[in-house]
Amino acid sequence: MAPSTPPDGFRCTSGYLRKNFEVQEKLGAGGFAHVYKCKNLVDDGTYALKVVPFRAESYEDTRREAIINARLQGPHITRYYQAWIEDGASWPGKLCWSSDSDTASDTETSTPEYIFYVLTELCLGDLNSFLAENSLDQAEKFRIFGEIVSGVSHIHDKDIVHRDLSTQNIFFDGYRKMKIGDFGLAGVLNAEGVFETSASLGNLIYMAPEIKKDSIALKKSNIYSLGIICFEIFSDFESISERYREIQNLKMNTKDATGWLKSLWSSLMSMLDENPSERPSAERILALLQAKGDY
User: Where along the chain is ATP bound (predicted)?
Assistant: First the structure.
């Protein structure tokens, strides 16, 4: 397959970031991007700014995130405002990245060819920190899980697969509402309901078997990730090592249901079925929660 390149007439915006935003603090970094809190100098609003260095041959793959963000406008999706591209010298200061792998790096500071900026709403934190810092009752846990499933259902309605669904990519706002974000690895499904990829990218803990083995993602791949997230929401871990160990036990089906998980166990195990066709749809999970009166 020929590398994707910018179309004829493609031009970078020059100086838009410097003219319109004040970058205030770094919020985090992943394999491909850095995320910052920034202030819009025109409307005084604060936003999350994702910064992605890339080369010309990755143009189409990179801008796919903006296309997908623009399609999604549900209440449990992080709100998207805009995206733009500037030349690599636009970033104020050094941007750590690897010029050989198109990924963010802690060691190299070479100037990328282009920088892709994505502006979204600024949430208070991610689900991982929310679960660690809050003592939640049963009703709150069911509400949280229901909102996440609702967000996944909206994503699937648009024929999109997230591919990197995890507690680090689910966020909460000032009303404790859950919102799915970071669509950097997301893809649009083809007519057969498949998104093919040349690499198995994402968090291995949440990754469905078909992505690991065959480098294909389906709607049901997100359901597998939901199963792990459900287990985390309804479990209480004393340490990171215990969390990892218990998730591995769950995957190997050597974990017994305890506490609130007993009422969800059958549904949870079906979400983690090795066969994607045996996993329930997001709509089915929502219907089960609503029938039980839990969401």
Answer: 50
If one counts every other C-beta atom within 10 angstroms of the C-beta of residue 248, the result is 12
Question: What are the pLDDT digits (tens) for 75-128?
Answer: 999 999 999 998 877 665 555 444 344 444 444 456 678 889 999 999 999 999
CA 114 – CA 188 distance, rounded (Å): 24
Pair 35, 103 in one domain = yes
Q: Is 50 annotated as a binding residue?
A: yes
Kindly indicate the confidence band of residue 14, based on its pLDDT and cuts at 50, 70 and 90: low
Q: Which residue is listed with tokens 């609130």?
A: 260
Q: How many CA atoms lie within 13 A of 27 on its CB side?
A: 21
145 in the same domain as 89 = no
Q: What is the DSSP string of 115-163?
A: EEEEEEE--SEEHHHHHHH----HHHHHHHHHHHHHHHHHHHHTTEE-S
| Residue 275 Cα distances to 3, 51, 237, 279, angstroms | 33, 36, 28, 7
Q: Which residue is associated with the tokens 């282009």?
A: 114
CATH of the domain at 61: 3.30.200.20
Cβ atoms of 237 and 250 within 8 Å: the answer is no
| In a domain? residue 144 | yes
Whether residue 184 sits in one domain with residue 87 = no
User: What is the tens place of the pLDDT at every residue in 141-170?
Assistant: 999 999 999 999 999 999 999 999 999 999
State residue 254 phi and psi, 5-degree precision. Answer: -110, 10
Q: How far is CA 250 from CA 120, 172, 205, in A?
A: 34, 26, 11
Q: Which two tokens stand for residue 52?
A: 């992605």
188 and 266 housed in the same domain? yes
73 shares its domain with 143: no
